[in-house]
Amino acid sequence: MDGAASPFRAPVVALDGPDKVTGAARYTFDVSLPGMLHAKVLRSPHAHARIRSIDPRYAETLPGVVAVVTGADAARLPDPYYGVAIRDQPVVAFDKVRYVGDMVAAVAAIDEETAYRALTLIAVHYEKLPAVTTIDEALAEGAPLLFDTPVAGEPIKLGDGLISLKEPRPNVLCEFGYAHGDADAALAESDRVFEDRFHFSRINHFHLEPHVNVARVTGEQIELWSCNQDPFVLRSDIARIFGRPANNIRIHASYVGGGFGGKSFCKMEPLVVLLAMKAGRPVRLCLSLDESLLTLTKHAGILMLKTGVTKDGRLTARKSEIQLDGGAYSDASALTVVKTGYRITGPYRWDAVATRAYAVRTNTVPAGSFRGFGGTQASFASESQIDMIARRLGIDPYDFRCKNLLAPGEPFRPGDSGIDSDLAKGLDEVVERIGYRQRVRSSAQGHKARGMGLSIGIKDGGGTGNHAQALVKLYSSGRAIVSAAAVEIGQGATTTLSRIAAETLNLPLDWVRYGAIDTDLTPLDNGTHASCGTVVTGIAVMRAAADARAQVLEFASERLGCTAAELALDNWTVRRGNYAHPLAPMIAEHYGGAGFEFIGRGMVKVPNDPKAPLTAASLFWMPSWVGAEVEVDRETGKVQVVQLVVGADSGRSVNAIACRGQVEGAALQAFGQSLFEELRYNGAEPANATPLAYRVPLAGDLPERYESFVLEHGGPGPFGAKGIGESGMLGVAAAIANAIEDAVGVRVTQIPFTPERVLAAIEAAR
Amino acid sequence: MTDAIEVAVTINGRGHRLTVPPRRVLADVLREDLQLLGCKIGCDQAVCGACTVLVDGMPVTACTTFAFELDGRAVTTIEGLAAGGILDPVQRAFLEHSAFQCGFCTPGMILSVKALLARHPEPDERLIRQWLNANICRCTGYQMIVEAVRAAARIGPG
Predict the structure, then answer these.
(1) Which residue of A65, A247, A764, B52 shows the fewest CB atoms closer than 10 Å?
(2) What would the 3-class secondary structure string for A428-467 be?
(3) Overall domain count for chain A
């Protein structure tokens, strides 16, 4: 199946494409049920306050209002808190509010306008409390506490010798510790030791489809139509919160209008269920984009790195301390802290490392999953510092990286899996494409200077110890349904998973359809994140297809009076030697009636391994190679990206055009965050939490030349595939910072690299 | 204050007589009254462009266009583009170049491009990028959309 003969070389038209270009695609946003009410949420105007009283009576009497839900209703639930591992976020606030935008109450009414008007009639008496809005404020001696008592849940489980703590200190949600070798001793023996500090900003996912959920409660059954990326994770949370068995909870997923992590894990969904319960009618809650901006962010943070090196440029040891701003509630902070801390060593060889990472609670929007999941924070700090060290030592940053890169097969860390990519090859590809060797160094005259920067980001992919199940149903006609819980969020799961099944069954791709996702019928997975769809769900689908194929051949061998081993499946005929036997008539003759369905089952579980740092060896590695050329205006500090080249490794592209789209889409998100995108705070108030003021990249922001490439070094997924969805996010910010230093000789250590920050750095160096 | 206004409007080639409250916006008329769900609402404040439709061939954001303004005008939504089930050249170019991911911005984006090519049949790179500034896509990184626009321009406006 190599080379030109491989069906994967042929371009495909995405199976969800016709729906999407004609407007026929249906999202949760489009779901409407008979008798459905519309909900709105009352949000806290205060960053930190105690709710002294809340009176919903006036709101309840407004004509058209059917139900008002407050903390008093939530407090009666069997388990009213959610969060990943550490559960501290109430379905709706009951005693305190902890950030501007915290959910205080909700109204279900005949239309959104009535619900919105009812919100103004809810009387809330707050007692304001002092707030902490930065990491430093939250960690200061005697700082106000967000939580007075320990919250529910457990720290993340890690491998032998690693540290994972829940709420170790005031305002600290969780802490991760990892050490290998004696980092202090190795640093003491190093010829040079560099200490640098990096600041990472807070950004929003800005998915265009807002968070939207429709809930219906019928007797004991709770049904949710949800934009959530993780239907089965949500099912577990709803079951636990409402104290009902999971087989009474049914989640429907549709096309998702963008997520990037913003729609993973439980958020406002239980509140919608609670409203539907109280109203006795279906309820739709569609947040505005302004509200989505107050629902989740990527973790801001401060990353402090102490790195040792020999005088000939060999890296020796790195000690890191990472503070992530987790915001008011845990959401996915506990997991993000682990992944950021683990990934901080980058794609290099070390004698010793020691890492501490922790999430700090502040009175700001909760932080959680965002494409790259701590990997972008780690890559920015690590790849910036690697470049700084090279320049300080007078070594070309390219040569310095090559000298220290992990070789193919070398474990990322002891006990973890080997690097399944050729990191040097990808870097060479960037160097070649961007013209690094021919670059024109910045000239002393004129106020504009050009420079180039490189970087290599890396993260583990596929989730830790992940698993998934799948079904492939083959109809009498040879048409097939792939049934799995990977949600189509734009990544191309529909086409990729269908293609894996079609290839395994030797069927035309357009004979395969990706089935609707309904947790009553669809096999389980752990959610659509961590770039796991193609590999983890993909293996389950491939196995399900192979199981279905075996059943078909078994059936045909019985009909033909031979062994299954003599038969091959080809375009819904079975071949035996020179003879082709069409299957459809064979099935019709035997079964009659409505025909038959062969139902293949497949599953995969990445093995647990207590000796691996994260309790399972990483399934695959996602490198990101980036080269940036910038033009910096010394007088204004404005940075113009002239060229951006981004590469990733797909293992083997099952859906090449989708791989390209993933790399370029991720890289442009990172590009926006590097240069201008940021959710800012003015004290305890969000300063730009509205689509008008929150600026995301537009087409006009594209670098003059923007190029991507995808290497195929093989991987553990079907046909050698790996996940690629997050890769493009990782290396961009550092490559741009490195290019800025190359151009004007100053370092910016805080993103975004706004003209003000760049100019300040230039002026400080004068 | 008037409770309702009579509006005669052509939508996707068919005449409609609508009675609309003064504050009702086009997006709600399309989605709720006519079930034309291809009109997506993202920001609801004329920033993201997801709800873009054509009014007399001009792109407008349906979320901020009052329905009463449409009296005597012709509206084209994404559902009106593929005549008789045959895709418009812009739709075909988007499909062939995979110029979409989640697809939520796609209907508005395609209609915006339709308007671009009607005015500038051979737009250069700069103009394409500038024109697309009105439509946010958070998924693709825009480049594949730009390529689809170039391809559609070669095919010529449908």
Answers:
(1) A764
(2) HHHHHHHCCCCCCCCCCCCCEEEEEEEEEEEEEECCCCCE
(3) 3
Phi/psi of residue A179, nearest 5 degrees? -145, 145
Residues A544 and A662 in one domain: no
Residue B115 pLDDT exceeds 90: yes
The residue ranges of chain A whose pLDDT is under 70 are 1-10, 441-445
Task: Note whether residue A4 is domain-resident.
Answer: no
Of the pLDDT bands very low, low, confident and very high (cuts 50, 70, 90), residue B1 is low
| Cα gap A749→A756, rounded to integer Å | 13
Is residue B140 located within the same domain as residue B122?
yes
Contacts of A495 in chain B (CB under 8 A): none
Is the residue at A274 inside a domain?
Answer: yes
Chain B CB contacts of A13 under 8 Å are: 95-96, 98
Q: Output the CA angle A748-A709-A640, nearest 5 degrees.
A: 30
Query: Do B91 and B122 share a domain, yes or no?
Result: yes
In chain B, the residue whose alpha carbon lies closest to the alpha carbon of A661 is B140
Per the structure, the complete domain to which residue B128 belongs is given by: 83-155
Amino acid at A663: V
- Cis omega (within 30 of 0) for bond into A697: no
- Rounded to the nearest 10°, the torsion over CA B145, B146, B151, B152 is 70
Determine the residue of chain A that is closest to B92 in CA distance: A21
User: Are B109 and B150 contained in the same domain?
Assistant: yes
In chain B, which residue's Cα lies nearest the Cα of A292? B43
- The per-residue pLDDT for range A293-305, each reduced to its tens digit, is 999 999 999 999 9
In a domain, A186, yes or no: no
- Clarify whether residues A312 and A432 are in a common domain: yes
pLDDT of residue A262: 97
Chain A contact probe: residue of B52, B90, B101 with most A CBs at under 10 A? B101
Is A503 among the catalytic positions?
A: no
Q: What is the CATH number of the domain that holds B130?
A: 1.10.150.120
**Of the listed A167, A488, A726, A741, which one is catalytic?**
A726
For residues A344 and A411, membership in a common domain is answered with yes
Rounded Cα–Cα distance for residues B105 and A257 (Å):
8
- Give SS3 for A283: strand
What residues are paired with A215 via a beta bridge? A224, A283
Half-sphere exposure (Cβ direction) of A524: Cα atoms closer than 13 Å: 12
Report percent pLDDT > 70 for chain B. 97
Number of separate domains in chain B: 2
Q: Tell whether the model's pLDDT for residue B151 goes beyond 50.
A: yes
pLDDT in tens, B28-57: 999 999 999 999 999 999 999 999 999 999
ipTM over 0.90: yes
**Contact residues for A16 (Cβ-Cβ < 8 A; gap 6+):** A25, A255, A488, A492, A494, A495, A514, B103
Beta strands (DSSP E) in A100-247 are: 103-109, 123-128, 152-153, 163-166, 172-180, 192-200, 212-218, 221-226
Q: Helix crossing, A375-393 with A732-744: angle to 10°?
A: 30
- Shortest Cα distance, chain A CAs vs residue B93, angstroms: 10
What span, in angstroms and rounded, lies between the C-alpha atoms of A649 and A664? 13
Question: What are the C-alpha distances in Å from A326 to residues A95, A133, A382, A661, A664?
Answer: 20, 11, 21, 30, 28
* H-helix or E-strand spanning residue B59: strand B58-61
Final residue of a domain: which of B56, B80, B104? B80
CATH classification at residue A675: 3.30.365.10
The CB density around residue A499, as the number of other CB atoms within 10 Å, is: 25
To the nearest whole angstrom, how far is the Cα of B6 from the nearest Cα of chain A? Answer: 22
A680 and A556 assigned to the same domain = no
**Could you list the residue range(s) of the whole structural domain that residue A354 is in?**
300-463+612-765
Token reading at A116: 């919105």
Do A172 and A359 meet the contact criterion of CB atoms below 8 Å apart? yes
